[in-house]
Specification:
By secondary structure, the chain is of the alpha/beta class. It contains eight helices and seven strands, in the order H-H-H-E-E-H-E-H-E-H-E-H-E-E-H. Strands 1-7-6-2-5-3-4 form a seven-stranded mixed sheet, with helices on both faces.
Amino acid sequence: MLNAIRATLFYFIYSLSLVIYASLCILVGWMLPLHSRYPFFLMWNRFAVWWLKISCGVSYRITGAENIPDKPYVLLCNHQSPWETLFLSYRFQPACAILKKELLKIPFFGWGLALLKPIAIDRSKRRAAREQLLTQGKDRINRGFSILIFPEGTRVDPGVEKKYSTGGAELAIATGVPVLPVAQNAGKFWPARKLAKKPGCIDMIIGKPVSSVGREARGLTEEFRQWVEQQNL
C-alpha cells in the first residue's frame, strides 16, 4: 500500500512537470539549433529520474561508463521499463532515438519529442521502417548523433524472452560505427504497465564497444543478446 501511495505521488508530479516543461520546450525549442535542443529538453528526463529516487526510493548505479566512445555509435539496450528510455536519452546525449510514430501524437510529450527529430517509424510497415531507419540513421550519424535502439522493440518483463530486431546492427554495419552494448534491470523496480514501484537500485552495465566492420547483422545482434544474458541482471 505504501509503495502504491508513493507511486501515485510520483506520477502526479511526473505528469504535472511534464506538461509544464514540455509546453516550455514547444514555445522556445524551435528557435534552438537541433544540437542545443537536446541538453535543454532533456533536463526534464534528469528531473524525472531524480524524482523517482526521492519519491519511490529507486536509485541506480553504472558500471563501465569509461567504455562510452567519444564519437557516434549505435547503442543497443534491452528494454524493460520507462526508466531506461528517460535515463539513456540524457546520459548518452546527443543520441537520436528510434521510436514508434504514435508517441509523437501524445499531447505535450509527443509534441516536444518531435522537436528532437527522432526517427519515428511505423512498425506495421516493416520494409519502409527498415529503409527509414537506415536512411535517417545515416543522416543523424553524419550530423554527430549516436543512435539509441531497443532491439526488442517494446518493453519486456524481466525473465521473458523476445526476438531481437537486427535493425540496429544493420545501421552500425552500414555506417561503420561501433555498437555500444548496454544491459540493465530497471523492470525489477519500475515494472512496465504497473503502478507500484519497488525501492532498490537499478544496475546498468555498459560493455566495451564492438566493431561492426566486416560483421553480419544477425550475428552481431545475437552476440549482443548473449552478452545481455551473461550479465545476469
